[in-house]
TrEMBL record:
It comes from Acyrthosiphon pisum. This is Uncharacterized protein. PANTHER family: 52 KDA REPRESSOR OF THE INHIBITOR OF THE PROTEIN KINASE-LIKE PROTEIN-RELATED (PTHR46289), DUF4371 DOMAIN-CONTAINING PROTEIN (PTHR46289:SF14). It comes from the Eukaryota. InterPro entries: IFN-induced_PKR_regulator, RNaseH-like_sf.
């Protein structure tokens, strides 16, 4: 949509040459947040979260292991800003349940060797001190970004209100 060669932006600019293109406030915030992915540690942490969620979600049997603890996991989607923040927050909140589920799957007779091996690999990856510390930091800010992104995607938000909300966010 934002493509300057053949996207909606270009089509509107062709019809109205004085029109200017701006990302919405929520999108701009997400672009800034995504710049953190330049750090390999952050990128690896997000990838491990995504891999873990995918591992559980691709099997109803695996999901049942953590659903008994009322553990809901939202798929981590890079393009749906609020869902991404929500996913990281939920992962952090249910971290102990996830670890216990992976431990159970890696030793249980009810799972095949491939599932056991993969659950052990994921367990080893997400229980390192580096991952746990990064998860808690990223989750803290994801909870705040989830809140502010939801507000910024509101139908009636204008530039002045968005600025006010962002400034109040920085005071938290």
């Amino acid at each position: 949509m934002a493509g300057c060669i053949s996207g909606v932006q270009k089509r509107i600019k062709d019809m109205y040459p004085r029109a200017h293109f701006f990302h919405c406030a929520s999108h701009r915030l997400n672009l800034v947040i995504n710049d953190l992915n330049v750090l390999p540690e952050v990128r690896n942490c997000i990838t491990k979260i995504k891999d873990t969620i995918t591992f559980f979600k691709e099997s109803a049997v695996r999901m049942n292991v953590i659903n008994s603890s009322n553990c809901k996991l939202t798929k981590l989607c890079e393009t749906r800003f609020v869902e991404k923040h929500k996913s990281v927050r939920q992962f952090n909140e249910k971290f102990i349940v996830i670890v216990e589920g992976l431990e159970e799957m890696s030793t249980s007779k009810h799972f095949n060797s491939k599932t056991k091996q993969r659950s052990l690999e994921i367990l080893n990856a997400i229980t390192t001190p580096n991952f746990v510390i990064l998860l808690s930091i990223i989750a803290k800010y994801s909870a705040k970004f989830e809140f502010i992104s939801t507000i910024l995607q509101g139908v009636n938000i204008d530039l002045q209100e968005a600025t006010k909300r962002i400034q109040s966010f920085y005071r938290l």
